Task: inverse folding
């Protein structure tokens, strides 16, 4: 391809199917390495907008096992699939707390499957800020589908809406008060509700309760959340779940929702990147800049409140070197 020699070496390797290079660049993204930026920039025009399917829900609902069966289904249909499992981070090391995703069943010699476990590093909802960029790398690498698993570590993974084209909320029978759970935000992010472990008693009740709640629409964009029952133990419902995903993806294409969703996600990503950069710069300057240290001292001494300090910082502080043109 014309212009290919100008691509960074790592970008060319990823396009050629080099999985080790892909894994290395993902580590660069996770660690905030400057080495990742030219690769991300070069590969962005090579992305195609593949389906990114997010699975979220409380701990213990069987998301990993469900993803394992979905991977098997997709591979049987000849589709390549990448899985990103986002775990809660240790507040001390920043590393993944769970780190047990190796239990996902996959053949080590199957180049059509790629798996990566990531730490959320404190990002809202258990979703790493880097996950969007990782999904984009996987898209450029040629995978047909990207699955993103998040762990509900005490808060609803609402941030999955800023990553996935289709969001699946996984629940189980007797999880608790479904109505209260949905009020917490799950109901607002689900394109599909999956009642997993449906071989257990109470599955029909859980599904009926969800159906009653879903009936209270309408919903933004016109899509009514689908409700699917699955059981990895009984090996049932996986095909129906994927059919619901395909139906939602087709709905996005038919109604223009895909482009609207992409614009919303990109806007949120740009704002987030700016916020993170400015936050890092200001954090460093609060310790180095004498004027800003005096401002912080005033807040610490309770002679100035944090909001007023932020306003002064925004209005009076000169831009850093990156902000000058």
Result:
């Amino acid at each position: 391809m014309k212009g290919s020699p100008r691509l960074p070496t790592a970008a060319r390797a990823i396009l050629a199917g080099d999985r080790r290079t892909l894994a290395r660049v993902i580590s660069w993204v996770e660690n905030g390495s400057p080495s990742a930026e030219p690769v991300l920039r070069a590969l962005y025009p090579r992305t195609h907008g593949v389906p990114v399917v997010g699975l979220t829900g409380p701990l213990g609902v069987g998301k990993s096992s469900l993803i394992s069966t979905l991977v098997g289904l997709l591979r049987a249909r000849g589709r390549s699939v990448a899985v990103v499992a986002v775990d809660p981070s240790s507040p001390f090391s920043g590393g993944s707390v769970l780190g047990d995703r190796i239990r996902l069943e996959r053949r080590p010699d199957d180049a059509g499957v790629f798996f990566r476990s990531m730490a959320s590093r404190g990002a809202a909802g258990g979703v790493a800020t880097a996950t969007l960029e990782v999904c984009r790398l996987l898209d450029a690498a040629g995978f047909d589908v990207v699955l993103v698993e998040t762990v509900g570590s005490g808060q609803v993974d609402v941030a999955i809406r800023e990553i996935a084209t289709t969001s699946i909320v996984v629940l189980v029978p007797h999880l608790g008060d479904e109505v209260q759970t949905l009020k917490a935000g799950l109901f607002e992010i689900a394109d599909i509700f999956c009642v997993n472990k449906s071989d257990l008693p109470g599955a029909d009740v859980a599904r009926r309760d969800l159906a009653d709640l879903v009936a209270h629409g309408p919903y933004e964009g016109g899509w009514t959340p689908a409700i699917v029952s699955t059981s990895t133990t009984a090996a049932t419902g996986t095909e129906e779940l994927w059919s619901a995903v395909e139906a939602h993806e087709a709905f996005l294409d038919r109604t223009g929702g895909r482009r609207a969703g992409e614009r919303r996600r990109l806007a949120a990503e740009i704002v987030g990147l700016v916020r993170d950069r400015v936050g890092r710069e200001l954090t460093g300057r609060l310790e180095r800049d004498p004027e800003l240290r005096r401002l912080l001292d005033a807040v610490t001494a309770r002679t100035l409140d944090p909001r007023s300090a932020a306003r002064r910082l925004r209005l009076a502080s000169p831009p850093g070197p990156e902000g000058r043109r």
Observations:
- The chain has eleven helices and seven strands.
